Amino acid sequence: MLAALLSGLAELRLAERNIAFQVQRLRELTDPEREIGRFSVGHILDCARRIVECLATRDAHAKTLSGVLASLHRVPAPDVRPESASATSAAPVPAPARAVARTR
Length: 104
Fold this sequence. Notes:
The protein is mainly alpha-helical. The protein has helices at 2-29, 38-71, 85-90.
C-alpha cells in the first residue's frame, strides 16, 4: 500500500512539474514583444494541449490518492455496554462439564 501511495505521489509531482514547465513555455511563446508566426502557432497549441493533459493527469492522481487516503481512516470501536447485574443474577451460568475418564 505504501509503495502504491508513494508511486502515486511521484506521478502527481511529475504532473505538477510538467504543468509549471508548459505554462512557462506558453508565456515565452506568447510574449507581447515576440512575433507570432505560422511556426509559433503550432507550438502554442501544443503547449496548451500538453497543459490540459497534465491537468487531467494531475486531477486523476489526486482523486485516486484522496480516495485511498480517505479509506485508511480508523473505524470507531463498537460501543460495548456491560450487562446489567439483574440479567446475570436471573440466569445462573452453568459450570463447565467435567471430563469423565473412561476405564476399561
